[in-house]
Amino acid sequence: MTVSWPLYKREDLHSQLLDILKRRPRCVSPREMAKIVGIVRSASEIAPWGNFLSFNLQNALTQAAKNAFSDKRSWWTCSRIYLSRVAVATIHQLLETLLAPEDSPLWSRPIALYLDRDYTHRAYSDASYGGLGGWSADFSFLWRLTRDTLVEAGFEMREIKISSNDPALPDGFLHINPLEYLGALINLWICIKCVILLGPIDGGYILALLIDNTTAVSWMSTASRTKDPLLQGLARIGSALLVEASQLLMKVCPKHHPGNQNGAADALSRPQLQGKDHENSLASVIAEWSQLQTCRICLLPFELLSKIALTLKEPPTGDQQELSEHDLQKLDDAGCILVLGTYLRDVKRGDNSKEKEDLKADTLRNYLSTAHKYLQYRLGRPIQVMDPAYGGKQNRYHPFLFQQIHDRRCWQQKNERYEPFTMEMFVALQQWLANSPDPTATFLGKVHCVYDWTRLGIFTGFRASEYSQGDLDRGKLFNTIPHKNDVPKAFRGMPLAMMAIDFRFFDKDYVLIPHHHLVTRYNRGDVVWLELCWRYDKSAFNFVKKRFKITGHQIYCPVDAAVCIIRRKTMLGVPGTCPIGVWSSGTMSSYHFLKSREVSEVMRRSVDLAYPNPNHYMRINRHLIVPHSNRVTAAVCLQKGGANNDEIAFRLRWLPSSVPTYLRDCFQSIGDTLERTIQGAMKLTFSSSSSPSS
Fold it and tell me: What InterPro entries does the database record attribute to this sequence (predicted)?
């Protein structure tokens, strides 16, 4: 009796996957992807293929979730996940197996293999940097692979010390964990061969696969979940062996076996004994361990080892086969153009670092330029790839290369431009905050935090990284300035985002106001000037300082917004070494660092509040409201005030060439009050080079 995944359910999934592969570009909604992953993962209880095939799809979903910029409800249905090459290959593998017959072992499992029973057979294995070894008294076999044999088969083994099995270098090449896993897989392969020869037994075989490496034990169940493409090759072999074992009514139970009790396998894996010059021959090992004396020596097929070794290398794909040095040196310019054109075609199809099929023409040109330089370096001579017959002012690539880039340029769509914040959006947020029943909790909350930073940002032209956190490495609370020799030691490791020391306030006589007196002095009307310092900037220079004067407006006042930011930081007890873009979920005992996606969420919510009509331009384009909209808002206001591109670029720390790019086709009706306030504030600012007394 067996448990199987019904054929009609597999047929339904087969039709769904075919539909996805027909799409151009190949993309799915997060809900579709999650449904497919859930279906295949549920089948992993029946067949080992389920775990292996579902995890590559799960990676695509996880990566998309990290990049989500909308609220969860709309993201699940409206966003798109563009399938990577790995995900597409996994879907093709699924399609190959889904229509297998009802009783196929690929998607079925005998009930007997679900029951916990005593082991009928045991097999032991061990690995060292000097070799692999394994044995089984129940199946009566033993085997050994020396380091020289593994190297000959294609394994990239580490160099080891003379008269020792320890590696000469601490890193590089195969680690001991994959070697232990490989030894267990070879043991399993031999056991399967023995079961085929012996035939079935009542109740089936219950094999204890005993390994003295806990990582290898866990990989027997979870290696299919690794993101390492090299280990995925071994995981695929392991999954295939487990499917075959299931078909033979054989239950495989990986178990940890203490190293001090695994002496026979350990001796088999060590052709050289530590501290001894003589070889630890197979005959001496058998003579020393009595349980090996009844075992037959198993000679593993060299072809099998070579194929396994190939899975631990990244093979070239498609037409991008590695040329030998001899063949490479024989290439003339025409041959090099053919190689570059083939490479460019593969890049367009998704074989690139981003695994995307819709790269822009300029990006393709950069890939081609880099490949051209690399080929010139390998050949040691210049390669002519330009069209000598072209009579234009600028050089042009050979038609075989030019046409591929030209076709992409003709059909590519320009990116949608970010939209600015509008006066109605800020008014809607201000009214929502004013109507809150708990002013303190609201002031400390996320919405008020975003409100303060964005209304300050329309004067400063903040980039998102200057007050919020984007993509963070695991375990990091906020992004920091890199530890490089070019960075002054005092600034290395400091937050990228604004800190309290970057905010300085002055009264009308240009006298500095300490932060601990700030709120009191502001309530008395003494705070007039705000000075900001950009310690780390994407523009030409760091440590840029700019000053802003109080406007007195209820919303559009840079000084008022900055005072609120410092006050919130003080109330939450944020240390001076941390960014001050923080908010609390209701208590003053804890706080969160503001994320870039949270800025987008709050400001898009303000679009909904300000424009109830779903057909309004801003509602239709709410997805174009992002943290960068701060800079677009300031640029629109300055342009309407008569500033040219160079002046806008200077005010906002931009490149002049970037200004028309972001102003093109964006929403211009941002509100007269907002325009006049920012234009007036910009005229009142005094440059960092002028003295306060001026």
Answer: Hepadnavirus_pol/RT (IPR052055)
